[in-house]
Design a protein that fits this description.
Blueprint lengths: L8 E7 H9 L3 E4 L10 H12 L7 E5 L8 E5 L1 H11 L16 H8 L12 H9 L1 E7 L4 H11 L8 H6 L5 H14 L7 E3 H4 L4 E2 L7 E2 L4 H4 L5 H5 L2 H14 L8 H7 L11 H11 L1 H20 L5 H5 L9 H16 L3 E3 L2 H8 L18 H15 L3 E3 L12 H11 L6 E4 L3 E2 L2 E5 L1 H15 L8 E4 L1 E2 L2 H11 L4 E3 L2 E3 L3 H7 L3 H13 L5 H10 L1 E5 L2 E6 L9 E2 L2 E6 L2 E4 L3 H8 L3
Parallel strand pairs: 2-4, 3-5, 7-8, 11-14
Antiparallel strand pairs: 1-5, 2-6, 3-4, 9-10, 12-13, 14-19, 15-17, 16-17, 18-19, 20-21, 21-22
Length: 597
């Protein structure tokens, strides 16, 4: 990609061949703070490629030259779907009129074909047509020396007409308020397309994008919680209605008295319309500061996990369980009412669930009786909503009981966040590390000191990525089938597969070591503090160690984070290169230190 620094905005034509080279070099970044999910289906993608093959003009692609830690890379402001369509066609993910791009056409694709990274599908498109496509020059505009604020403003202006955006996508476009960030991150967590950082290489977007049966990658839309449970339709999720529902729920959780639900109140919370004082951006911001962002997110996730765990034992999805009549448009408000009521029982009344069976018994046919949700898509008035919430709580209360142990929640099930983190690990390998356990696979009675030392070296490497760097290390998860099979063979446990990983847990190790969770927790904390890590980093890392449950499996989590300076292990600097932890030597030490200047 050519560069010019004399002008702030340059417009040029770039061949698809050159753009693909930049793509494979991970030069293109997607800022998930405002970019939509990849939502084009095969039919839309094929139409674009047909236009290219016929040398028809296509809309301009707008990029921003990144600065700081992403210097030298280009942020996609407008044209994400078009770029993805071109690159995925070149890599044989879909055909043009039934024929696939000839991978021998380009040097880059030929090399990747020979290396086994790409596979040629048949029938193969005529070489001359492929060459014509590769030489097509896409109109590209590069916004240079752009600040985050200017990029946000450009994106908002581009999408202000909302010709192809839903109301919430327009609302969310470029929004930087805390509530907007909370909605975006919680929605990604529930869908399973969360990312550890806002910036993701364009080449990694497909893995965390919503798709259907005609595309061989991403998150299958039918498996997303909202769709699987009949709460929202597939089309609604593609239009970001799930984010809209989460916004409605968060407003109900944070306001002292749940406000009305509707378009105007959502816009008001984002500062778009200020005449709804009860949900104005200022009120919402003050409530978040008062309650705490983390506390609100925890309340949301804990309530969702409770509902998910109960539904896991049901033979029916939420919609069919609670409403006998089929609802082709989904049941978002039915879910919202039950969710908010359960949250209030848990947090306002300090109750806990008796059992999933008790809750499912009450939810069976819940909305078939006297309780009614207002029909239509208009506002859901505050008075009617609060009256209904009181009745819903009264109906659900028999499934709950007073908490027996206020401290018993530290090992609660963390399914939602754990699954979201594993999904992130698919695209952000340098920020994640998975270990099957603390002991040797073939001998659970022996603590593996060498393996634990590797964990600590990896933690130091993650902290050396930069001033704001952080990472996650899970213990109790095998990252390949061979380790999982070995654990199954020696420990006689059944690993639980999730995505490309296998949850093995560590309970079998505690049993073999004859230690309780608290005893091992104290021992591990002491091992970290007295390790070969720099003392201040070791103290900080030890504070992040936490055990948690995932579907009955005992796991552990470490969250290494930068402390404002490079850290060492055994007086050596380490850094992450992809999924590997390597010692920094020579010039790489200078590069590492400069990250903290």
């Amino acid at each position: 990609m050519s560069t010019q620094t004399s002008t702030e905005l340059s417009v040029e034509g770039e061949s698809i061949q050159q753009l693909y080279n930049d793509y494979t070099s991970e030069k293109f970044l997607v800022n998930r703070r405002y970019q939509r999910k990849l939502v084009w289906g095969v039919e839309e993608k094929e139409r674009l490629i047909d236009s290219v093959a016929q040398k028809l003009p296509i809309p301009l692609i707008l990029l921003a030259e990144s600065a700081g830690e992403h210097s030298g890379r280009l942020e996609v402001i407008d044209g994400l779907q078009r770029l993805n369509s071109v690159f995925s066609f070149i890599e044989n993910e879909f055909p043009l009129n039934g024929e696939y791009f000839d991978l021998a056409t380009l040097a880059d694709t030929k090399i990747r074909l020979d290396d086994g990274k790409l596979k040629q599908k048949t029938p193969v498109l005529d070489r001359e047509v492929c060459r014509r496509i590769a030489n097509y020059r896409l109109p590209v505009s590069i916004y240079r020396s752009a600040s985050d604020e200017s990029v946000d403003e450009v994106f908002r202006r581009i999408n202000s007409s909302g010709r192809h955006l839903s109301p919430h996508e327009i609302r969310q476009a470029g929004a930087t308020q805390t509530i907007a960030t909370m909605v975006r991150e919680l929605a990604a967590t529930v869908r399973g397309d969360a990312s550890f950082t806002d910036f993701v290489p364009l080449s990694g977007m497909a893995k965390i994008s919503i798709t259907n049966h005609d595309l061989p990658y991403g998150i299958f839309v039918e498996n997303i919680f909202w769709v699987k449970q009949g709460i929202l339709t597939r089309e609604s999720v593609r239009e970001s209605r799930d984010e809209e529902l989460i916004l409605d729920i968060l407003l109900d959780l944070m306001l002292e008295r749940p406000a009305a639900t509707g378009l105007r109140y959502r816009d008001s919370a984002y500062g778009i319309e200020n005449d709804r004082a009860v949900t104005s951006a200022d009120v919402v911001h003050r409530r978040i500061l008062s309650l705490g962002e983390s506390e609100l997110e925890d309340r949301f996730v804990n309530t969702l996990e409770l509902i998910q765990n109960a539904l896991h034992e049901s033979s029916k999805p939420f919609a069919a369980l609670t409403v006998t009549q089929t609802n082709y448009r989904g049941v978002p408000r039915h879910f919202q009412a039950i969710f908010v009521a359960i949250n209030q029982l848990l947090h306002d009344e300090s109750l806990e669930l008796k059992s999933n069976k008790d809750l499912l018994f009450i939810l069976d046919g819940f909305w078939d009786g006297d309780l009614r949700i207002p029909s239509g898509g208009g506002d859901w008035g505050s008075e009617r909503k609060n009256q209904l919430l009181e009745m819903v709580k009264a109906a659900l209360r028999p499934a709950f009981k007073p908490k027996t142990d206020a401290k018993s929640t530290h090992l609660r099930d963390h399914s939602v966040r754990f699954e979201a983190a594993l999904s992130m690990a698919l695209t952000e390998e340098s920020l994640f590390e998975l270990k099957q356990g603390f002991c040797r696979i073939n001998d659970s009675t022996t603590f593996d000191d060498a393996s634990f030392a590797k964990i600590l070296r990896t933690a130091s490497a993650m902290a050396n990525n930069g001033r704001d760097s952080k990472g996650v290390i899970f213990i109790g998860v095998a990252d390949d089938a061979a380790d999982a099979s070995a654990v199954e063979r020696f420990a006689k446990i059944q690993p639980l597969p999730y995505e490309e990983f296998f949850v093995t847990g560590t309970q079998h190790e505690l049993s073999a070591l004859k230690k309780s969770v608290d005893e091992l927790w104290r021992e591990l904390t002491q091992r970290i503090k007295t390790s070969k890590l720099d003392l201040d980093f070791a103290e900080a890392l030890a504070r992040t160690l936490a055990p948690f449950r995932y579907k009955g499996y005992l796991l552990w989590r470490l969250e290494p984070a930068a402390i404002g300076k490079p850290v060492t292990y055994d007086n050596r600097f380490y850094q992450r290169v992809g999924p590997q932890t390597l010692e920094a030597v020579g010039q790489s030490i200078i590069t590492l230190v400069n990250r903290f200047q």
